[in-house]
Amino acid sequence: MYTSSDISPRERIIETALRLFYSQGYLATGINQIISEAKVAKATFYTHFPSKEELCVAYLQARHVVWMGWLEDSVSGHKTAEEKLIGVFDFLQKWMPESNFRGCAFLNIATEIPAIDTKIREEVIKHKDDLQDYLKEIIEDFAASNPSVTGLDAKYTSEIVYVLVEGGIVASQNYGDIWPIVAAKGAVRDLLRAS
Amino acid sequence: MYTSSDISPRERIIETALRLFYSQGYLATGINQIISEAKVAKATFYTHFPSKEELCVAYLQARHVVWMGWLEDSVSGHKTAEEKLIGVFDFLQKWMPESNFRGCAFLNIATEIPAIDTKIREEVIKHKDDLQDYLKEIIEDFAASNPSVTGLDAKYTSEIVYVLVEGGIVASQNYGDIWPIVAAKGAVRDLLRAS
DNA sequence: CGAGATTGACAGACTGGTCTGTCTGGTGTA
DNA sequence: TACACCAGACAGACCAGTCTGTCAATCTCG
C-alpha cells in the first residue's frame, strides 16, 4: 500500500476536495471526479466518509485551519494593533487574486446549501465566529494600547470591521478586482483615526 | 389557449424561475421542476428559452427590475440625501427577513457559476453597477446639499457604502440575523457625520 | 359566414449522460 | 487470516434537451 512517507487515501481525498470544491463549487463537483483525481477507489472513499455531505464538513474543517493559518501568518508580522488590523486587509488583497477571485469557501458553500439546519451551515457559522473573534481581539488590543481612545466600543467596531471584510471579499469576488478591499481598508483606517 | 386575462406560459416560467432559482439555487433547480410548477409543457419551455442558462439570464433581468423597484420605492419616501442613504439600510433590514435570509440573488448565482466570461456573470455585474450608481447619486446629492461638507470624495465614499451594503447582506444571510445590516447602517451614519 | 390552414400550447416518451451510493472481486501487506 | 486498498460494474434517480403527436383557438380567404 502506501508507506508512512506517502499521503494516505484520506488525506488525498481531503486535498482533492480542498481544490475541487473551492474552485468548482460543491454541487458542481461529483464524487467520481474527486475519487478519480485523488486516485482512490470508490469503496475506499465510502469507508472514510459516509456521504458527500460529510466530506464537505471535513473539507470546511480543513479549510478553516488552512485559511486562518494564512491570515494569522500574514498578520502576525505586524507590531501594533492598528497595523495588524490594516494587515488583515492587506492579506485579503494578496489572497483574492491568488485564489482567482473565488472568494470565501464558506460563504460559497452556504450559498449552495440554503437549508440552515445542516452540519455544513454550522461549520460556516463556526468559521465566521472565529474570524469575528480574531478581529475583536485586535480591536480590543487597539483600544487598550491607545489610552487616548475612549469612545471606542470594541464590539460595535468589530462588527463594522467584520462587515467590511465580508463586503470586501464578495464584492472583489464579483468584480474580479481588489478595489473593494482597498476601499474597505480605507474605511477601517478612517474608523481608527476618528476614534 | 389562454385568454388575455390569464398569464402567458412565458410569464409563468419566469415567475416560477424567480421563486425557485432564488429559494433553492440555480444548480439545485431542474428544468423538470420549473415546467411542472409553471404548468407548462417541456416543448413550450424550449420554444421560449433555448436553454436553462438563457432562462437564468432572463431570470436575472427580471429580478433586477423587481429588486431595484423595491429599493427605490422604499427609499423614495425620504426627503434628504442622508435619510435616503440610511433608508437603503432600512430597506435591507426589512427585505432580508422577508426573503428568509436568502440574500442577494445575483451574488448567489455568481457563486454557483464560477466562470467569469458568461452572460450570467455579465448580468450580475450590470446589476451591481446599477446599484453602485444609485448609491453614488445619493452621496453626490448629499455633498451638494450640504455646503459645509467639503472633504467628501463621492466616488470613494460610495465605494465604502457599497461594500457595507454587500457585507451587510452576506453576513446577514449567513447568520440569519439583521445585526450586520444594523452595524453597516451605523457605520454609514458615522461616515456622513464625520464628513 | 364558414372551412381549411396555421399557431401555440399541451402531455409525455425518449436519449444520452451524470449523480450518489452499493457491491463484488482482486491484490498486496502485516 | 485479516485488513486496507484498488478497479470498476451496477442500481436507481435525476439531469438537460429532443421529439412525436394531440388539441383548441385564431387567422385567412373564398
Provide the descriptors you would attach to this structure in a database record.
mainly alpha, 195 residues, 0% strand, elongated, DNA-binding, homodimer
Low-confidence segments of chain A, ≥5 residues, pLDDT <50? 1-5
> What oligomeric state best describes the polypeptide chains here?
homodimer
The CA-CA distance between the termini of chain A, in Å, is 61 Å
- Quote the beta fraction of chain A: under 5%
Shape of chain A: elongated
Helix content of chain A: over 70%
DSSP summary: helix tally of chain A? 9
Number of strand elements of chain A: 0
Sheet of most strands of chain A: none
Could you spell the SSE succession of chain A in H and E letters? HHHHHHHHH
Helical/strand content category of chain A: mainly alpha
| Mean pLDDT over the residues of chain A | 93
Largest binding interface between chains: A-B, 44 and 44 residues
What is the rounded Rg of chain A? Answer: 19 Å
